[in-house]
Amino acid sequence: MVKDTRTKILLSLILIGDINFSPVVFDEKIKKVFDLSFNQKTKSIINSLIKDGLIIKQNESQRYSLTERGFLDFCLEFPFFRFLKYPWDRRWRIISYEIPESKREIRDRLRRQMQGWGLGPWHRSFWVTPHPVIESLRWLIGGKEEEKYFQAFEADHVFGSREILVEKVWEKTKLDGEYRQLFRKWHEVLSSQEDKVSKFKKIVDTYVDLFKIDPGLPKELIGESWIGFEGWGIFREIRNILLD
Asked: Is residue 31 within 8 Å of residue 38, measured between CB atoms?
């Protein structure tokens, strides 16, 4: 599970409120599942998210909803969700950068900031993604020292096997195996004697770990029957059973 409170709040709103942004009440169950304590720090973060237009509060209740802006911001960290809600524009983003070893601190920081963009290594120093991240890249490096090390392109795929590309760049077979292992863990959790909320917490924790490595490819690239889409459907069923 993530440690950052801001991310926990956004995760709870998408995993409980779903991609249609249904309102979420932060009751004791949800607080336990996402390790949230509504102390002054958490309330301050929520107020900041509201001010930035990432979430909204339903009247004076403790019901909160994600906004479209909040969803898109969230997808920069967890790209799996973007194409569950929005169609792919069939455009590719190619980013090239070579940051010298003497600037390792800059390189490592940028890699951390870009790790949720669904980028895959195409060739040495070339990264590719179907996600619309160019504006985010401009915001990240514009006017800064590191800008001189970058080139960015948008392109159409003209010819060549997409299946081979997806396997080479994102290791689809390996990711498929990760999902199958996840399902085995879920089965073990659901077969245990723990209470429902404790079970759901473990389901969420293991799922979030996989979100961190899933590049969130659209169905046009990964296939409509992709196991990751199946996993999302299974999770929603588990959520309805354990949080009834």
From this structure: yes
Among 193, 195, 189, 237, smallest CA distance to 28 is for 195
For residue 226, is it within any domain? yes
Strand pairing class (120-123; 126-129): antiparallel
Asked if 114 and 176 sit in the same domain, the reply is no
Q: For 73-110, what is each residue's pLDDT tens digit?
A: 999 999 999 999 999 999 999 998 888 788 878 778 88
Rounded distance between C-alpha atoms, residue 56 and residue 47, angstroms: 9
Q: Find residue 55's DSSP bridge partners.
A: 66
Q: What is the pLDDT of residues 133-185, one digit of tens each?
A: 998 888 888 788 888 888 888 988 878 788 999 999 999 999 999 999 999 99
Q: Which residues contact 152 (CB under 8 A, 6 or more apart)?
A: 93, 94, 95, 96, 134, 137
Residue 213 falls inside a structural domain: yes
Q: Which phi and psi angles does 201 have, rounded to 5°?
A: -60, -45
Range of the domain at 99: 92-156
Domains of the chain: total? 3
CA angle 15, 20, 21 (to 5 degrees): 65
| H helical segments located in 34-103 | 40-51, 68-75, 82-85
Amino acid at 147: E
Residue 87 resides in a domain: no
The pTM for the full model equals 0.88
Phi then psi for residue 129, to 5 deg, are -155, 145
* Residue 85 placed within a domain: no
Structure tokens at 165: 């590309």
Q: Is residue 110 within 8 Å of 99, Cβ to Cβ?
A: yes
Q: Quick one: DSSP state of residue 92? A: E
